[in-house]
Automatic annotation (TrEMBL):
Homodimer. It is found in: Cytoplasm. The keyword Transport applies. This is Phosphate-specific transport system accessory protein PhoU. Belongs to the PhoU family. It comes from Comamonas terrae. Keywords: Cytoplasm, Phosphate transport, Transport. Residues 22-108, 129-211 form the PhoU domain. The keyword Cytoplasm applies. Plays a role in the regulation of phosphate uptake.
Length: 233
């Protein structure tokens, strides 16, 4: 990911931080996959594993942030090196928030299990969206490691599909609650779970935008997809 510098020590520091960011990404990816499994199988063991991983994710985020602050203070990087370090920092923050969303998913699954309504709720569509979000994070980490702007653009498009799944699920869930008011409490848990999945997609999108920022030096957060494609492809 990083380019060679005159200082081999600086190269070593950049590579070490890069590896730590990818390690954090792998940890969060496994956390999200475990949350998806908890939803698919209504497994309390999987729920507990997701929640237990949260401390490791938070600790790694703090450690990486400390390393980045130290490098910036000592090296005073400019231009592309500074963009790289900023991208690392923002990617780390987004990954930590994805871990938070995975914990929200796990807690909602636990609440649904305890309500006794797990098998009667319309969860099949939600599982599809959860698997899409998990796969999107995997693609995002791969694109970030390779600084692949074309893959980043594809990720932005895929996030739109997750948003569409979320909107469709919300409409279906509202109809479900209207038809059977007894399920309102458990259905609201499912609604919050769906929102957590949608937010994981949003954070993957944020990291994809960072890839474009890092490679092209352009902030595309408020641009249309057509403008992004013309700037990157």
């Amino acid at each position: 990911m990083t380019e060679k510098h005159l200082s081999s020590q600086f190269d070593s520091e950049l590579n070490r931080v890069s590896a730590r960011v990818m390690e954090l990404g792998g940890l969060v990816e496994s956390q999200i996959r475990q949350a998806v499994y908890a939803l698919t199988s209504f497994s309390t063991d999987a729920v507990d594993q997701v929640i237990a991983t949260e401390k490791r994710v938070n600790a790694m985020e703090v450690e990486i942030d400390h390393d980045l602050s130290s490098i910036i203070a000592r090296r005073q990087p400019t231009a592309r090196d500074l963009r790289l370090l900023i991208a690392f920092s923002k990617a780390t923050a987004n990954l930590e928030r994805m871990g938070d969303e995975a914990c929200k998913m796990a807690r909602m699954v636990k609440s649904i299990i305890e309500s006794g309504a797990a098998r009667s709720l319309p969860t099949s569509d939600l599982r599809v969206a959860a698997e899409m979000a998990s796969e999107l994070l995997r693609k995002t980490l791969d694109a970030f490691a390779r600084l692949d702007t074309k893959a980043a653009v594809a990720i932005l498009k895929e996030d739109d599909l997750i948003d569409e799944e979320f909107d469709g699920f919300v409409r279906k869930l509202i109809t479900y609650m209207m038809e059977d008011p007894r399920t309102i409490s458990a259905s609201l848990d499912l609604l919050f779970l769906a929102k957590a999945i949608e937010r994981i997609g949003d954070h993957s999108k944020n990291v994809a935008e960072l890839i474009i920022y890092l490679v092209e030096g352009k902030d595309v957060r408020h641009q249309t997809m057509a403008d992004i494609e013309s700037a990157v492809l």
